[in-house]
Amino acid sequence: MKIYAHRGACGFYPENTMLAFEMALEAKSDGIELDVQLSKDGHVVIIHDEMVDRTTDGSGRVCDHTLSELQALNAAKNWHGGKAFHPVPSFDEYCAWVAKTALVTNIEIKSSIIYYPELEKKVLETIKAYGLEDRVLISSFNHLSLIETKRLNPSMPCGVLVPESGLVNAGFGVRHFGFEYFHPAYVSLSEEKVAECHAHGIGVNVWTINTMEALENCHRWGCDGIFTNYPEVARAYVDSL
Ligand code: G3P
Ligand code: CA
Q1: Checking phi first, is residue 131 left (phi over 0); if not, alpha (psi -120 to 50) or beta?
Q2: In this structure, which residue's CA is closest to atom 3 in ligand 1?
Q3: Protein residue whose Cα sits closest to atom 5 of ligand 1
């Protein structure tokens, strides 16, 4: 079962910052999950919300800020009283760093609220530029982004994210539409649903696993991967088995 650090090791470090990614590596994660959007001037940036307000000391929409404006914001404003400065990273900066590691990256395309033209294309171009094709998978709650990803690169693995309400016959559906992974919320999942996905050759990566009970169940059910805010805990558990 692969351990993906959710927004980096965001349980103890500011989410979607290079610090949280570096600490995910330190925690011996297998991979990192992060969220991407486009800046006003068309750069791929790593940030979860469409607004910068919750996670940074700025305000307004991500898409109304240029890359340099985003890089001037403190994405660690909620961490240790905001005393340390950790900017919003560019996807390019992340790829340059991760290329020097063995980490896998799950890139979640945030396109459900704002659809960014060419976000999928720019993400794929950056992946290619850094030679990361064999160490990434793309996921999105907006399945149009997955269709566009497959149109641009049919061999790029894609994970179908679904909300807490879940999805019936997920394994059949995900395979039928040509994708490789199902990314359900833990609350919607069961051993039978994992087995149905596996019967169709579909891998199951589950979000967001932050309790021991959920961790143990995912492992017992044979899930392929989990997203967790606490990769060091998941690593200690998996290594103890
Ligand atoms: O990819 C799993 C998880 O990150 C999806 O939800 O809101 O944390 O991006 P969210
Ligand atoms: Ca995410």
Answers
A1: left
A2: 207
A3: 207
